Amino acid sequence: MRDTLRMDKLFAPALDPATVPEQRGSTYPEPFRSRMGDRAKRRLGDALGLTRFGVNLVTLPPGGQSALRHWHTLEDEFVWMLEGEVVLVTDAGEQVLRAGMCAGYPAGRRDAHHVVNRSASPARYLEVGNRIEGDNAHYPDDDLMWCEDEDGVYAAHKDGRRYPSP
Questions:
Q1: Which pTM value belongs to this model?
Q2: Which domains does the chain have, with CATH numbers?
């Protein structure tokens, strides 16, 4: 009971998303990081104390992309477009997503995906994903994988060589 009370004081059950700090850029190593453009995320789920799934409010500027094209072994992902327009790129091809549309990517489905803003205006969307320990992301188009050792998670080439730390 004491932990519950402490958590209630740390995390309000409601907030204005504009009060959550923006996190810009990407954790990808170069040459991938710069491909994301000036992507901005507000980690709403973290700000609200959610632990089983994440919710991010993402602003994607013209020319930016959400991530490298990828698929997850254990994580479901969901995107709901709020403003603007992006192009969803999957193994099946491309589809325009406009405000009010949504997309979902089931865990384990080997259909790599990402969204790209090819318009002249910023796009905003919510991205939601569950947090499952042991999940791995696969990047079929890029020489990238994530590894973990006693020092934590790090980016590596698919042959195991580490990318330089930023």
A1: 0.87
A2: 2-136 (2.60.120.10)
Query: Which DSSP string corresponds to 150-161?
Result: TTEEEEE-TTSP
- pLDDT tens-digit map of 109-121: 999 999 999 999 9
Spatial separation of the C-alpha atoms in residues 28 and 68, rounded to whole Å:
9
Residue 156 above 50 pLDDT? yes
DSSP state letters, 77-124 = EEEEEEESEEEEEETTEEEEEETT-EEEE-TT----EEEE--SSS-EE
What is the number of alpha carbons within 13 Å of residue 39 lying toward its C-beta? 25
CA 162-165-166 angle, 5° bins? 145
